[in-house]
Design a protein that fits this description.
The protein is of the alpha/beta class and 277 residues long. The protein has one domain (22-237): Pyruvate Kinase, Chain: A, domain 1 (3-Layer(aba) Sandwich), CATH 3.40.1380. It has five helices and five strands, in the order αβαβαβαββα. The protein is elongated and about 110 Å long.
Length: 277
């Protein structure tokens, strides 16, 4: 009986300690969720305005034969993918859903820039063509983002890649987030967008050659922020579920512990009464 009580008590202590950890993780994830969601909204507006300005440039001065490499359709197909996952677990099915999506939508022979340790390990293990990795990123710092953009632009201008896509988790709300693909290059013209005419200096192509890389950079950053928002929403939900399960288990263990103690006390009293007789 004493051994049973000791076992239940030890297990109860372990569950209580685990609940403290999951509760702390949930609180941290909640704060980060709010932080990344705010930053996403702020940067989305910038990316949207930048795209609108590019559309104004294109509508102000069109070209019968498009020669700008950022706009013309490639003859060959060699798309590059940027895949965003997390560096750590405890975020439910977040990484699993992204990697399942990659299996279905990303060819194994397509070059990949991967952000996140979990994604890198999975892609390497499954023989994907990973050419660059960015891990241990809590935030996509300007220095790292600029380095990535420079690498991408060199590959694109030299026609080593003909398309740039980003695979990330789109944040919808705290309970809904879905893996998706956003095509960054070649830049696709939205004919429905109407803008005012503007005067271009020094030339259409020079303006576009500056603006479009800025647009690609802004979209990558927004996708990263949205993926981090989704990751922390998933982690908060996973930890919230773990906390509820821990509370239920703690109640059961406390009940079993009290029953075992009561049984032990009753047995001791019976033994004392028997010894007196």
């Amino acid at each position: 009986m004493a051994g049973q009580i000791s076992t239940i008590k030890k297990r109860l202590q372990n569950v209580v300690s685990t609940k403290k950890l999951t509760n702390a993780t949930e609180l941290v994830a909640t704060v980060k969720l709010q932080k990344y969601n705010t930053k996403t909204k702020q940067n989305e507006e910038y990316a949207k305005n930048l795209k609108h300005f590019i559309m104004a440039v294109l509508q102000s001065e069109s070209s019968d034969v498009e020669n700008n490499p950022f706009l013309k359709k490639p003859y060959a197909e060699n798309p590059l993918y940027i895949v965003i996952t997390s560096n750590s677990g405890l975020c439910g099915s977040y990484n699993t859903e992204v990697l399942k999506y990659v299996e279905t939508n990303v060819p194994k022979d397509a070059p990949i820039f991967v952000i996140g340790t979990i994604g890198f390990n999975y892609l390497m293990k499954n023989d994907y063509l990973v050419v660059k990795k960015y891990d241990e990123l809590e935030d996509l710092q300007p220095r790292i983002l600029n380095q990535m953009i420079n690498n991408l632009m060199i590959l694109y201008r030299q026609y080593e890649i003909t398309e740039i896509n980003i695979v990330y988790t789109r944040y919808i709300n705290t309970l809904t987030y879905r893996p998706t693909t956003l095509k960054l290059l070649p830049f696709e013209i939205d004919e429905d967008v109407k803008t005012e005419e503007i005067l271009l200096e020094p030339s259409r192509d020079e303006v576009l050659n500056r603006l479009i890389p800025m647009y690609v950079s802004s979209q990558i950053y927004v996708a990263f922020l949205e993926a981090k928002t989704s990751e922390n929403a998933a982690r908060r939900n996973a930890m919230n579920a773990a906390n509820k399960n821990a509370e239920k288990l703690i109640s059961e263990l406390r009940l079993n512990y009290n029953k075992a103690r009561q049984a032990a006390i009753t047995q001791e009293m019976n033994e004392i009464v028997a010894s007196i007789r």
